[in-house]
Design goal:
Largest sheet: 6 strands, parallel
Number of helices: 16
Distance between the termini: 16 Å
Strand order of the largest sheet: 1-8-7-6-5-4
Structural class: alpha/beta
Shape: globular
Number of strands: 8
Strand content: 5-15%
């Protein structure tokens, strides 16, 4: 299919609570920490999704294994620093921050990737998975310096920006160093065909940036994000929440391969700031109960109109849908691009 004929779809993911209630899937520790159980449950979930929503393009009839080392549900970096990871049968894993004071923050060091138990387990899991399936993805969701820093240190990091900026800078610098080392010394070791130290493709998950002012981000966090950008051949940005007040700072990370601005953002301003980036747009799932089906269609059209050209719009995503969203609403979401195709094509 020619790229000009492609219509951006509205994609959905579901919360662990949804999966547990609807499909009986269990997200307790065993199903995360056992690499084979983790891989097979992922296959079962995709098969179950196809059986229930295959008519709107969700799931897979014959899902192939996707072996990986993410035993902590995107909490790999906090686990590596010694944070306890807690599991529940119907929730995603979460970390317990260390709650460090500024003096302890200043003493934080990059974990030893040769001896740290979390890194050792990742290498062991990779060996198990390669033996069973023939391959393993060594990728890690790093988040970013601020994202990981808050997860590790706790809200004390926010206070440190005001009362102990030297300590906050140390934490962010340590994490930036660690991200590069994890990519080059762990991910590239496990799957060298996907992760090349000479051609890094990194992404920045800046979920908690809206907890600090644009000025604090510019002065105290951006230097470490720029450090990662400088060491990457390709760089992407995810920003939860309204991005508009941070766009001027984010321009210093350009060029960006892709940008994912949070719900409520001025998408036209994002497009003006990053005219050549692919955009993946977000609709906050908590907004859906207040939207009729007709409202959702109008929102989709408005977002796509602001994000054009369509060739540079990857998709619209609605993540972590819960049990308050009906199956009919899910099907409506997934058919937006077909139902609205004439109006969407008019944007080109």
């Amino acid at each position: 299919m020619d790229e000009s004929d492609r219509l951006p779809e509205v994609n959905v993911t579901f919360s662990e609570r949804w999966w547990h209630v609807r499909g009986g899937f269990d997200f307790s520790a065993q199903n995360w920490l056992d690499p084979l159980l983790r891989t097979e449950q992922d296959r079962s979930m995709r098969r179950w999704l196809f059986e229930h929503f295959g008519d709107v393009g969700l799931g897979e009839a014959d899902p192939q294994p996707r072996p990986n080392i993410e035993a902590y549900g995107h909490r790999f970096v906090p686990a590596l620093f010694g944070c306890e990871i807690r599991y529940a049968e119907d929730q995603a894993p979460c970390e317990v921050p260390l709650h460090l004071d500024p003096e302890a923050m200043a003493l934080l060091q990059v974990p030893n990737l040769e001896t740290a138990e979390v890194a050792r387990k990742a290498r062991s899991d990779a060996g198990t998975l390669k033996k069973r399936y023939g391959s393993c993805d060594g990728g890690i969701n790093y988040g970013g310096p601020l994202n990981a820093g808050l997860s590790i240190v706790g809200q004390e990091l926010l206070a440190a920006f005001a009362i102990a900026p030297f300590a906050a800078a140390h934490v962010l610098g340590i994490i930036a160093q660690l991200i590069i080392r994890l990519h080059d010394e762990l991910s590239a070791l496990i799957s060298p065909n996907l992760y090349d130290p000479k051609n890094r493709r990194l992404g920045l998950g800046n979920c908690p940036v809206i907890a600090i002012s644009p000025q604090i981000y510019l002065e105290q966090v951006l230097p470490f994000d720029k450090c990662l950008r400088a060491q990457s051949a390709e760089f992407s940005l995810h920003h939860c929440g309204i991005i508009s007040n941070y766009l001027a700072a984010y321009q210093q990370l350009a060029p960006l391969a892709s940008v994912q601005p949070g719900w409520g953002s001025d998408i036209a301003a994002v497009r003006r700031t990053f005219p050549e980036a692919r955009l993946s747009l977000l609709i906050e799932c908590s907004a859906l109960p207040r939207m009729s089906l007709e409202d959702l269609d109008e929102v989709v059209l408005q977002m796509l109109g602001e994000a054009r050209p369509l060739a540079l719009v990857q998709d619209i995503q609605i993540a972590y849908l819960g049990n308050d969203i009906s199956d009919d609403y899910v099907r409506h979401i997934r058919t937006c691009h077909k139902r609205l195709q004439d109006k969407i094509r008019a944007f080109n």
